[in-house]
Amino acid sequence: MVAIARGLMAKPKLMMLDEPSLGLAPLIVKDIMTILRKMCDELEATIILVEQNVKVALKMADRACVLSHGQISISGTSQELMNNETVKAAYFGKKQTNLAREIII
User: Fold this and answer.
1) SS3 state at 67
2) Residue 39's pLDDT is what?
3) Cβ-contact 105, 48 below 8 angstroms
4) Is 35 exposed, middle or buried (CB count within 10 Å of its CB: 0-12, 13-18, 19+)?
5) Residue 30 above 70 pLDDT?
6) What is the CATH number of the domain that holds 85?
7) From the centroid of its chain, how far is CA 58?
C-alpha cells in the first residue's frame, strides 16, 4: 500500500494496479479502495485494475472486462456485468464455468 501512496504523490493520470487487495483484511480493502477512488477522482486519473476479488473490482469499476483464456469474453459497466448470468454463475457461485478468474478494470 506504500507503493500506491508513493505513486499517488506524483499525481499520475494513469495508475496500473495488480491485485492491490491481495492478502488484506476485507475492512482494510474497503477503506483503501474508497480512498483510492476518491483520490483518483480528485486527480482525474484512470486506474487499470487487475483484481481477482470480483466484488472489489466491480465496486471500483466504471467499466470492466472479463478475460477467458487471454481474450475478452464479456465487457460492460459494472452494473451490466453484475446482472450478466454468466458472470453471476462464474463468480457468485451459481455454477462453475470456464471463465478465467480475472477482472480487468
Assistant:
1) strand
2) 86
3) yes
4) middle
5) yes
6) 3.40.50.300
7) 6
Q: What is the C-alpha separation between 56 and 39, in angstroms, rounded?
A: 17
Over residues 52-84, the pLDDT tens digits come to: 888 888 888 899 998 888 889 889 998 998 888
Question: Does 105 score more than 60 pLDDT?
Answer: no
Instruction: Indicate the SS3 state at residue 86.
Output: helix
Amino acid at 76: G
Residue 101 CB neighbour total at 10 angstroms: 12
Query: What does pTM read for this prediction?
Result: 0.70
Per-residue cell: 104:
480487468
Residue 98: what residue type? Answer: N
pLDDT of residue 94: 58
> How many domains would you assign to the chain?
1
Distance CA 20, CA 40 (A): 15
Domain that holds residue 28: 2-104
